[in-house]
Design brief:
With 249 residues, the chain is an alpha+beta fold. It is 33% helix and 22% strand. It is elongated and about 75 Å long.
């Protein structure tokens, strides 16, 4: 009997140690994931429907902090420019320094340096822009459009100004990586820009951040639940043992 007791106590102590270790590791992962995410990402609420259907007004998005040198065509970015009301705005980069951006070709598509660009993120079968334009993007500047081309107030609204509606690359503060609420997942990079010089950007580590936070939460909950579950199992074993002893009697 005493040997069985020691074995049971040993298992209990081991379980307790493992449970505490799981909670400790879980806390490190959970808090570390949040800190990691806070350093790399900024939350942002989309104020208008100019980027519909990609993101809708009121959507809470996570934008990776970057500088202008990291911007690629197809990126959905957060930027601030005093000519554009000096408030944070969300638009898609369709042209970078040195590009000639024009619209539209015979099939209603936008072209970059004469190459037609498929834009699957646009709504319906409408042309890439209801108004035509041709812009030579100066070095260090960006040409930006909303995905809702009918109503978006974007670079096309500033074509008559100096720079033809382009924005300094340094005005960009972040690049959208995911829609946090309502749950929309990671934004895919448009492959249609990949064949152009410089290619497209890679997604930030948002999946790794979420995986770290999730793993931490699972370990914390699992470790914290071990004690009550082990106690319940022990009580059931003792109850079964007493029932067996009564039956033998």
């Amino acid at each position: 009997m005493s040997g069985m007791g020691r074995t049971g106590n040993g298992r209990g102590r081991l379980g307790s140690v493992l449970s505490g270790l799981a909670v400790a590791v879980g806390c490190v992962l959970f808090l570390g994931g949040f800190v990691w995410g806070a350093l790399l990402y900024q939350p942002y609420t989309v104020p208008t429907d100019s980027m519909s259907p990609t993101v809708a007004p009121g959507d809470r998005v996570l934008a990776e902090r970057i500088d202008g040198s990291e911007v690629r065509r197809g990126d959905v970015v957060v930027f601030t420019d005093r000519v554009w009301a000096d408030a944070p705005m969300v638009k898609r980069v369709v042209g970078i320094g040195g590009d000639t951006v024009a619209c539209c070709d015979a099939d209603g598509r936008m072209t970059v340096d004469g190459r037609a660009v498929e834009e699957p993120y646009l709504r319906g079968e409408e042309p890439a822009s209801p108004i035509g334009f041709t812009v030579s993007v100066p070095e260090g500047k960006l040409f930006l459009l909303g995905d809702e081309r009918r109503t978006s107030v974007d670079s096309r609204a500033h074509l008559q100004e100096a720079g033809q509606g382009t924005v300094p690359a340094g005005a960009v503060s972040a690049r959208l990586d995911a829609v946090a609420w309502p749950l929309g997942g990671v934004l895919e990079r448009p492959r249609s820009f990949a064949a152009l010089p410089g290619g497209i950007s890679e997604p930030g580590p948002i999946r790794q951040v979420l995986a770290t936070v999730t793993a931490g939460a699972v370990l914390i909950l699992g470790g914290a639940a071990w004690g009550p579950l082990a106690g319940l199992a022990g009580r059931r074993r003792r109850s079964a043992g007493r029932s067996g002893a009564a039956a033998d009697a």
